[in-house]
């Protein structure tokens, strides 16, 4: 067992860090304040291949491992939680299912431009009546000749209005099993601009304010028959498996937020003076920092381990990384919330002011305990594996 | 076209500076980066590669650890990397450094050699022009723009209050300013590819037409007599006053010092 | 190499458009000190086309002798003919010391020449003196006397090193502009003028100058200013530099700035003070809204009087300021301008 990162990974981190500091950090406060999607940063990331890090080169990606991708989201989130989730949602929730379940034609048509960053991706599972409970879905897809006809809506969709390609889940029938009727769910690829596909309200959020979170509305939206992703009726599995990967991305986002808050706070307590000394000289500050740093380190271990397990899965699809991903997300998200809250506290009054980064980080951190499976869902996944 | 870019791994001067007992730099103890002017030189080469097509080879002289900047350069798009490293080369001043690098470059084919204007550790700006002298080719220092036209380069050469548009026949050496361009980032895939490539490592024996007496600490005409942290003038008075009092304070001082 | 053969302190007398650069006079001032210590004389090397008339001016600033290489090939600076000329002079006359300005010309010419005559070159020196090498005698090692000890900052001004060139001649240094003091010119002074032409045969190293584009600037060179009112990022905006300009105007000074200001695009690069800008030593230096990063301090700490105004009481600029005022520049500077106006009007 080796806890040392390879030189490649170290260098990749240097790259992500430099990019984050130079390109994402200067915008972080402004996009938060104006609830503005940082299109210019996305364009720059596209050119550098950041939008296809774990996608194989033959599909326009960078051909790197999940750990490299994880580190990218981590470093971006250190300075800007919004930028982190844009990459995470695009890569884990849109590129990944198309790469895993898509036909060769679908990969050629959609994965290549997504991985090159020419197109941005999104994922639509959640509905007003179906968040954690996927069976609560209402959106329907009916085959009509050579087309699927979609009706319904999706909510809280990250990259909502900014994306070009959407992986959408809809009910395609019912299954009778042991006398119970359940909904049969399938996955589809929907392009922006398809007649009948429109956007509803833009959500006004507590954090990650620069991310474009929208309601998607489908009204007799007709898509080609070939845009069914994976087998008909396998949508639930596709969704769950995709979310396993997505959780690693969100765990990385949470980890980055915690690290960013910790770094900011360390710098702050060295400078800020009270009672004639820097507040870093007080034992309370020191002990708080020690706890924060230890938890951040533990979170990083879990996140990296999950990423490495996903790499093993790529070689052997029988391996599951579901539990590792759940643990990583559960822990990193809770650490992010705890560390950012402590960071605000150590900043005192300034921590409560918009001008200070930790204020934004604390708001950004909260969502990591909620989306792509709440902490409660993660606990269900983990305990489920313990008690099966 | 074949372009050779000379790059140097330097301590990031933001991180503080450490010396060996003999007065030479303790490079191992400091955070290492690619020298900014060299990075601009590399970017210039890569842009020529994008525009005209070229094979870009990066060369560095240093400790084995300097391999890192070669990998970084290759992750940005350089094709080959050569590390010149040997114990006998340590402690070189600009003369001995330039004879060493010239000795390495004599093994290579090149149309253009690009170096950074100066390194942030030594700030000398000497190695580029000295290499050109050893190789008997023209030098254009302080390049702020580079174009290729046939077998010549056309370069905007910066001076304090003007620039010259200079045309030189290749092969030729150009020293680049960090203002020349904004160097590109590496790409994630480029990093992993760079580590798959072979780096050529050359030692003393691989240097062509170089006398031992021109290498390393012994071959350096300049010797360090003393090196130390800079001693600064101490702080004077510091006052916290309201604006009107501040003004009177300054006016009084200017009067006392006969400025007004 | 017989080191004894090499005599005299030589200065490369840089001229541009047949006008001698200020650095040449500064170097002559220093060369005079060094020559005195070595009991020798000062020679200026003047390279150009139609430049012979400039020799008297060099004499006024301390040259005992002027070697003129006058040739059409030297009309506009190009590395090769200049390097050929200076290297030929060195080989012919065998000077003990050669000083070159650390200018955009000198930092190109110096290394090329030093490599050609196979000697050491120390870049960007700020202190030059005659002394022993090693500084203290070391048993078993010869201590050489009357060596040129060249002191220079390195690592962005974090360190200084003193360097000698004990076994090669000439001892060559490029010297930072604005550091050495020129002497008060001696009117009517004459130097021995000697013309020398090594012959110029164009070869592959001769480049072609297609165009000379001069930057349009009507501002005073900040290196010549007696009073500098320098602003940093703390000034807040390019528009707000107006209050600094007003202050400078009242005092007959010039506005300069920190690197952060240039990086933000508020002011042009030629107004930048610091390691990557210019080294200044005015009588009074106002540092307004400048935090005092080490690279800035390296370019202004030799100023006679440093007055700093900054709202951050912990700003490092206060470590070098003679008079530091912790306060809001927006409130203090306009009032200071008004007050000085009144003071000066009352005189």
CATH class category name of chain B: Alpha Beta
Spatial extent as radius of gyration of chain A: 21 Å
Mean pLDDT of chain A: 95
Cα distance, first to last residue of chain A?
Answer: 28 Å
- How does the major sheet of chain B shape up? 9 strands, mixed
Strand arrangement within the widest β-sheet of chain B reads 9-8-7-10-6-1-4-5-11
- What gross morphology of chain B would you assign? globular
Helix content of chain A: 40-55%
3D shape of chain A: globular
How confident overall, as mean pLDDT of chain B? 91
Total number of helices of chain B: 6
Give your account of this protein's structure.
- The complex is a heterotrimer of chains A (388), B (260) and C (347).
- Chain A is α+β, with helices and mostly antiparallel strands and 388 residues long.
- Helices cover 53% and strands 18% of the residues of chain A.
- In chain A, 55% of the residues are buried.
- Chain B has one domain: 3-Layer(aba) Sandwich (Rossmann fold), CATH 3.40.50.620.
- Chain B is built from six helices and 13 strands.
- Helix content of chain C is 25%, strand content 27%.
- Chain C has helices spanning 22-38, 55-60, 79-93, 106-116, 242-251, 259-263, 294-297, 329-346, and strands at 9-12, 15-16, 19-20, 42-48, 65-70, 97-101, 121-125, 127-133, 144-154, 159-164, 171-175, 192-195, 208-214, 227-231, 254-257, 284-288, 305-310, 323-326.
- In chain C, helix 2 links the parallel strand 4 and strand 5 (65-70).
- Classes of the chains: A alpha+beta (388), B alpha/beta (260), C alpha/beta (347).
- Chains in contact: A-B, B-C.
- At the B-C interface, helix 3, helix 4, strand 7, strand 9 and strand 12 of B face helix 3, helix 4, strand 7, strand 9 and strand 10 of C.
- Strand 9 of chain B pairs antiparallel with strand 13 (208-214) of chain C, so a sheet runs across the interface.
